[in-house]
Amino acid sequence: MSKSTPALIADATVHDFVPADSGDPWRVFIHVPPGPAPEAGWPVLYMTDGNAVIGTAVDAMRAQAFYPLGTNVDWGVIVAIGYPVGGAYDPLRRSWDLGPPPGKTYPPFYENAPEVRTGGAGQFLTFIEDELKPWVASRTRIDEKRQALYGHSFGGLFALYALFTRPHSFRTFIAASPAIYWEDRAIDRFLETFEAAVPDGLTANVILSAGEYETEKLAPFQIGADDEEKRLQQKKRTCTDEFAQDMAERLDALPGVRATFELHAGENHMSILPATVNRAVQAAFAIRDAR
């Protein structure tokens, strides 16, 4: 039997980034393409839930950027922000980081665990803007005009919060299955403030999405299951596809904003992750804008 060696994500490095306030570190995964940067600098895709998405994102870009004329995807820098844990998620910290303020406090996820708090999205966005982006720019040449933000579920809600509160922070915002319903649609107060004063000169591309089985439809494997009725009731509360489509239409009517909604066939709330990570890569690193 041959000797085993770790299987690494190609050309990616991992850094436990302690913020300036000496709080808990974030685990930052960064992929910088080999070779010299373009004259204008690399486009950059920032991603939440970094532990869960970094491998998919890097491989999606590598597979397509080798054939740019056929895929319309070029090389770029990928920065995925996660946590120093072994699994795909840190549910406690992501609840705080991705939840728009003011937030609320909820019972622990399990016995003898801390209470769950939301409302830290403003602090998390400040970390990205004031600390992480300058650090990335110190490592390689960046095209500041071509920066994108991807988030899924709570991360999709965070992407919308970033658009509404710091609309110039990114050029492209990808909100996959965004939890717009969360806390009685607390995101709406940020939306309304944004709508009332869209910044002059804004150019923002917004992609919202949902899976086919985030509609009123159940996935085939859910039909007849013990929790069928519970899932149907949950769908009436979250309305993921309806709220995302309505949000896209509302945003697309604003000056300087181009917003679209995509429905992904055969996908549920979690299986949509790789499909929308790929869409984020395609949007962030597109060579030509065909729309």
Structure at a glance:
The chain is an alpha/beta fold. It is 38% helix and 21% strand. The model has no long low-confidence stretch (mean pLDDT 95).
Notes on the protein architecture:
The protein has one domain: Rossmann fold. The strands form 2 sheets. Strands 1-2-4-3-7-8-9-10 form an 8-stranded mixed β-sheet, sandwiched between helices. Helix 3 packs parallel to helix 5 and helix 5 runs parallel beside helix 7. The protein has 10 helices and 10 strands. The protein has 291 residues and is of the alpha/beta class. The termini are far apart. The model has no long low-confidence stretch (mean pLDDT 95).
CATH first level: Alpha Beta
Q: Note the main sheet.
A: 8 strands, mixed
Total helical elements = 10
Distance between the termini: 53 Å
The tally of beta strands, per DSSP, is 10
GO molecular function, one term: hydrolase activity, acting on ester bonds
Organism: Mesorhizobium loti R88b
Family: Belongs to the esterase D family.
Keywords: Hydrolase
Please give a handful of descriptors for the protein shown.
single chain, 291 residues, alpha/beta, Rossmann fold, eight-stranded mixed beta sheet, two-stranded antiparallel sheet, 10 helices, 10 strands, globular, AB_hydrolase_fold, Alpha/beta hydrolase, hydrolase activity, acting on ester bonds
Give the arrangement of secondary structure elements.
Blueprint: E1 12-17, E2 26-31, E3 42-47, H1 50-65, H2 68-71, E4 77-82, H3 91-98, E5 105-106, E6 116-117, H4 121-139, E7 142-152, H5 154-165, E8 172-176, H6 182-185, H7 187-196, E9 204-211, H8 228-238, H9 240-252, E10 257-264, H10 272-284
Parallel strand pairs: 3-4, 3-7, 7-8, 8-9, 9-10
Antiparallel strand pairs: 1-2, 2-4, 5-6
Organism: Mesorhizobium loti R88b
Family: Belongs to the esterase D family.
GO molecular function, one term: hydrolase activity, acting on ester bonds
